[in-house]
Fold:
Amino acid sequence: MVGDKWTLLVLRELYMGVTRFDEIQVQTSATPQMLANRLKSLEANGLVERRPYSEKPLCFEYQLTRKGWALYPVTYALRAWGEAWCKEPGEEVAVRFVHPVCGHDVHFANVCAHCGAPVSRDDLDAFVSAGFQTERQARREIFK
Structure:
């Protein structure tokens, strides 16, 4: 269900709040056919729901279901591993998660080290690094 690179990239975008086909395609570099297949599979397996956002032309956005959000800790763990083992020395973390209650970065934990509160994705504010933001913008420029 989620064992290939493309599905994980699609889920990454959905977790970041990207819900429209064209932007998911830009940020994953997937072909339209590959992306359509992955989204159909995620929908068939109950991880996403397709919702219309425009009638003319009929266009859909993709929203994570409870089942899709329940997979977030797994992808978060993969992200933590990637940040620890796949970065060049001195390369910044792509996305920082801050616990707004106390204002501290939780790094890759599910408990805030500063105040001890258990945290989930809904409890955190995400801050995209300048480098990752530049990378994402460069992908948009390619597709213009």
